[in-house]
Write a structure and sequence with these properties.
Blueprint: H1 12-20, H2 26-30, E1 36-39, E2 54-71, E3 74-83, E4 86-93, E5 107-117, E6 120-129, E7 140-143, H3 152-166, H4 175-181, H5 186-194, H6 199-230, H7 241-247, H8 255-268, E8 275-280, H9 286-299, E9 303-307, H10 311-324, E10 332-335, H11 342-351, E11 356-359, E12 373-378, H12 386-394, E13 400-405, H13 414-418, E14 422-426, E15 437-441, H14 446-458, E16 462-466, H15 481-491, E17 497-500, H16 506-517, E18 523-526, E19 539-544, H17 552-559, E20 570-574, H18 580-591, H19 595-613, H20 631-645, H21 653-666, H22 669-673
Parallel strand pairs: 4-6, 8-13, 8-14, 9-11, 9-12, 10-11, 12-13, 15-20, 16-18, 16-19, 17-18, 19-20
Antiparallel strand pairs: 1-7, 2-3, 2-5, 3-4, 5-6
The chain binds adenosine-5'-diphosphate and magnesium ion (MG).
C-alpha cells in the first residue's frame, strides 16, 4: 500500500509524527480509528442556545475581533455576532490567529459551548467556518486519539484525503459471511467510521471493524491450530499405564484432574502432536497431572522435559517428581544455571540416561540434545517469553506439548488468547482444602496484624509480607519492603526475618527462597516476586501492605502462596485507601477464592482499559474491539470462524485466499504465539 507521504499535506515532518504512531501507509492511516466523535449537527438560534450546551450557530459579524491583553500570556480576543433572534459574544483565549479573519457583515458558522453570564450569552473558543467553505460544522466529526503536534482538524483532513486516495478498497470478508452476520461493506464502513452520516451508520461501521479485527485474529489462531494438528509424531500405544501410577498417589484425584488426564492420554494416542493448555487456579494440582503424562511417556519409551520459570521452582519440581517416581526406575535430571558438570549431563541426556529433565530455561539451551523427546511441559507459561516456549516445542520431533498456567482469564476471552490450543481446565480444588481466611483492614490494624504473625511464628508457622515497593518513594506514602524488613527485625528480635525483591540477582533470590523453605527464615518480606508457584506449605499467613496498589489477579495469585496444608491460613490485606472502588475490590477478595470469578470482577470494576493495561493476562492489544464490551460481536466472529474453517458457508477459493492473506498480515506472529 502507498506511503502516507503520497498524501497532500504530509511532508517529512508530519510523516515522522505519524510514523511514531506506527502509521506509515495510507492503509495504516485509514485504520487509525477515532476514539470518539463530536456531534456538530445541532444548529440553533442564538435566543434558544442554553447554558452549557454544545451547539452550531450561523451568525453575522457585528464588530470585528478586538484584542484585550489581560496580563502576560493571557489575551482575550472577542467579537459580537448576531442572527434574527439575538446576539452573542464570541471569545477566544490566546488565539491570535483569529485576528483579522472576520469583517463586519461576514456570515460565519460556529460550533462551541454556550455560557450564559447574566444577560450576556457567550461562545467560548468555538471552531468556525465560512459558509462557502463549510466542512467540519454541521456534521458528526471524528476525534482521534493523537493530539500532540497534530490538530484534530489536520488529521481529519488527512483522513478525508486518504479515503479518497484509497478509492475503492477491496472487500475481503466473503459476501456469504457478511450476509449471514450482518456486516456492512468495507468502503461504506471506512467512510462511516471516520465521518458517519448518522449514528446508525456509525454503529454499523464499528460493528464491521470490530468483527473484522476479531475474525482475523481468530482465523490466524485457528489456522495455526490446524497446522499444529498436522505435526505428526509416533503415537503412544499404551496409555492404560496411567492407572498404575495414579494408584500410587497418596490422595484421590479430583474429577477435574481425572478429566484432564483423560484428555491428555487421548491426545497421546494420536499420531499428531498434542498442543494443550492446562489452566487451573493456584493449588488446583496441575503438577500431578503433568507427572501422570511424564509417567505415560516413560512407559512408552519417551523422554520428557519440564521447564519452570525459576530455579527454585525447578528444584521444587525435582523434589516432587523424585517423590512421585520413588518406586520406579525413572531417572530425573535437574538442569539449571547452577548444575555442576553440565557437559556430562548433556551427554547423559543425549544418551538417554535420563528419562525426565527438569529445569529452567537451561533446558532449551542449544547445547541440550534430547533423545526421543515425547512430552514437553512448560509451567507457569505467563512467565515465559514467546520465543522460549516456541524453542521448547522445537526440541525433538514434534513432542507433545503441555502448557500450564494459573492465570485465570474470563472464559469469554479464552478463545482470543488460546485459540490455537486445546484447553483442559482444572475448575475444582482438592477436597478438604480450607479457604484462606481473608481480611481487609485499615492501617490502624497493622500492629495487631504483625502481633498475629509473631504469635503464629512462635507456634512454628511461617509468614509472607508483601509490599508494593522495595525502597522509599518520595512522592507516596507507601510501605516498602526494606523499611518493613528493618522494622520487623527490630520489633521481633527473636525471630528470623528475610528480604527478597526483584532487584536481587536470581542466585540471591533462590538462596533466600531456599532458606525460607528450610525454615531458616520465619517471616519473608518481599515484593511481588514471590507471586510465582513456589510451594512452602508451612507458611500460613500472608500480609499484603498497600493492598489497594495491586490488581485483583495479582492479589489472588499472592494469596495462593498460603493455604497449602491442613493448617488454617490467613491473608490480611492492609489498605491505605478508603475509596469506594478500593472497598469493592477488597470485598471481592474477602468473598471469593475463585480465580475466574475474581478476574471477571476485576474486569468489571476496573474497566477494560486498566485491565488490559496491566497486561497481566497477556491479551493482544486491539485497535477497535473492546474485549469486554464487544462479547456479542466476539461470539459472531467465533461462529464465522467455525463456518470458514468447516466450509459450511459458500465461499469461493479466491475469497478464502484473500481472507487468510489478510489474517496473516494483520496479526503479528508474536500475538499468535502468545
Ligand atoms: P498448582 O496447580 O498451583 O501447581 P500444585 O500442583 O502445586 O498446584 O498442587 C498443590 C498442592 O495440592 C500440592 O501440595 C499437591 O500435593 C496437592 N494436591 C494435588 N492434587 C491433589 C488431590 N487430588 N488431593 C489432595 N491434594 C492434592
Ligand atoms: Mg504449580
Amino acid at each position: 500500500m502507498e506511503s502516507i507521504k503520497t498524501l497532500n499535506g504530509v511532508g517529512p515532518q508530519r510523516a515522522k509524527i505519524l510514523e511514531k504512531k506506527g502509521i506509515k501507509t495510507v492503509e495504516e492511516l485509514l485504520y487509525y480509528f477515532p476514539r470518539g466523535y463530536e456531534d456538530r449537527t445541532n444548529f440553533c438560534d442564538i435566543r434558544d442556545a442554553k447554558d452549557g450546551e454544545y451547539v452550531c450557530i450561523s451568525a453575522t459579524v457585528y464588530s470585528p475581533v478586538r484584542e484585550t491583553r489581560i496580563r502576560k500570556n493571557f489575551t482575550i480576543y472577542q467579537m459580537t455576532v448576531f442572527d434574527d433572534s439575538g446576539q452573542i459574544r464570541v471569545l477566544w483565549y490566546n488565539n491570535r490567529f483569529v485576528k483579522g479573519v472576520f469583517k463586519t457583515g461576514d456570515n460565519v458558522l460556529f460550533y462551541g459551548k454556550i455560557a450564559v453570564k447574566g444577560h450576556q450569552k457567550e461562545l467560548e473558543n468555538p471552531v468556525y467556518e465560512m459558509p462557502q467553505k463549510q466542512h467540519f460544522i454541521g456534521k458528526i466529526v471524528p476525534i482521534y486519539p493523537l493530539s500532540a503536534n497534530l490538530t484534530q482538524k489536520t488529521l481529519a483532513t488527512l483522513m478525508e484525503e486518504a479515503i479518497k486516495k484509497a478509492g475503492n478498497l477491496e472487500e475481503y470478508i466473503p459476501t456469504a459471511i457478511r450476509q449471514k452476520y450482518g456486516i456492512c461493506e468495507i468502503n461504506f464502513a471506512m467512510q462511516n467510521i471516520h465521518f458517519p452520516d448518522n449514528f446508525l451508520n456509525y454503529e454499523s461501521a464499528r460493528k464491521r471493524f470490530v468483527f473484522e479485527e476479531l475474525l482475523l485474529l481468530r482465523l490466524a489462531l485457528a489456522n495455526r491450530r490446524n497446522a499444529n494438528q498436522k505435526a505428526t509424531r509416533t503415537p503412544f500405544s499404551d496409555t492404560e499405564c496411567a492407572k498404575e501410577f495414579i494408584k500410587t498417589l497418596p490422595y484421590t484425584l479430583t474429577n477435574a484432574q481425572k478429566r484432564a488426564i483423560e484428555e491428555i492420554c487421548a491426545d497421546f494416542k494420536k499420531d499428531t502432536a498434542m498442543n494443550r493448555l492446562l489452566e487451573g487456579d493456584v493449588g488446583s494440582g496441575k503438577t500431578v497431572v503433568a507427572a501422570v503424562g511424564i509417567f505415560v511417556a516413560y512407559k512408552n519409551g519417551f523422554q520428557s522435559v519440564i521447564m519452570a520459570p525459576t530455579e527454585i521452582l525447578a528444584f521444587q519440581h525435582f523434589e516432587s517428581f523424585s517423590q512421585f517416581f520413588k518406586g520406579t526406575d525413572i531417572k530425573i535430571a535437574l538442569l539449571t544455571r547452577s548444575t555442576k558438570n553440565k557437559t556430562k549431563m548433556y551427554e547423559d541426556i543425549k544418551n538417554g540416561e535420563y528419562d525426565v529433565i527438569i529445569g529452567t530455561n537451561a533446558v532449551i539451551s542449544n547445547k541440550v540434545e534430547y533423545k526421543n523427546l515425547g512430552f514437553a511441559v512448560t509451567d507457569e507459561q505467563h512467565r515465559f517469553g514467546v520465543s522460549q516456549r516456541a524453542n521448547l516445542a522445537e526440541k525433538g520431533e514434534n513432542p507433545n506439548i503441555l502448557i500450564m498456567t494459573a492465570t485465570p482469564i474470563p472464559r469469554t476471552l479464552s478463545l482470543i488468547l488460546y485459540g490455537d490450543l486445546d484447553i483442559s481446565v482444572l475448575d475444582e480444588l482438592p477436597k478438604g482444602r480450607k479457604p484462606v481466611l481473608t481480611y481487609a483492614v485499615g492501617k490502624d490494624m497493622r500492629k495487631r496484624a504483625y502481633a498475629f504473625v509473631y504469635k503464629n511464628v512462635k507456634l512454628g508457622m511461617q509468614a509472607y509480607v508483601v509490599c508494593p515497593l522495595i525502597e522509599e518513594s518520595e512522592k507516596q506514602d507507601l510501605k516498602n519492603a526494606k523499611d518493613i524488613f528493618v522494622g520487623l527485625k527490630t520489633a521481633f528480635s527473636d525471630i528470623s526475618v528475610g528480604l527478597m525483591h526483584g532487584k536481587m540477582k536470581a542466585e540471591e533470590k533462590d538462596a533466600v527462597m531456599r532458606d525460607f523453605l528450610d525454615r531458616k527464615i520465619d517471616v519473608l518480606v518481599s515484593t511481588t516476586v514471590i507471586e510465582v508457584g513456589v510451594n512452602v506449605p508451612n507458611s500460613n499467613i500472608m500480609i499484603i501492605e498497600n493492598a489497594e496498589r495491586f490488581g485483583l489477579a495479582t492479589l489472588h495469585q499472592l494469596r495462593g502462596r498460603v493455604g497449602r496444608s491442613d493448617t488454617q491460613a490467613y491473608c490480611i490485606m492492609i489498605s491505605g485507601e478508603e475509596s469506594e472502588l478500593s472497598k469493592k475490590r477488597m470485598k471481592t477478595m474477602c468473598e471469593s477464592s475463585d480465580g475466574f470469578y475474581i478476574s471477571e470482577q476485576d474486569l468489571k470494576l476496573r474497566g477494560p482499559g486498566d485491565f488490559f493495561g496491566t497486561r497481566q493476562h497477556g491479551l493482544p492489544e486491539m485497535k477497535i474491539a473492546n474485549l469486554v464490551s464487544d462479547t456479542d460481536i466476539l461470539k459472531l466472529a467465533d461462529l464465522a470462524t467455525e463456518d470458514i474453517m468447516q466450509n459450511s458457508v459458500e465461499i469461493s477459493p479466491t475469497e478464502k485466499k484473500k481472507l487468510f492473506e489478510k489474517a496473516y498480515n494483520a496479526i503479528p506472529e508474536s500475538v499468535i504465539l502468545n
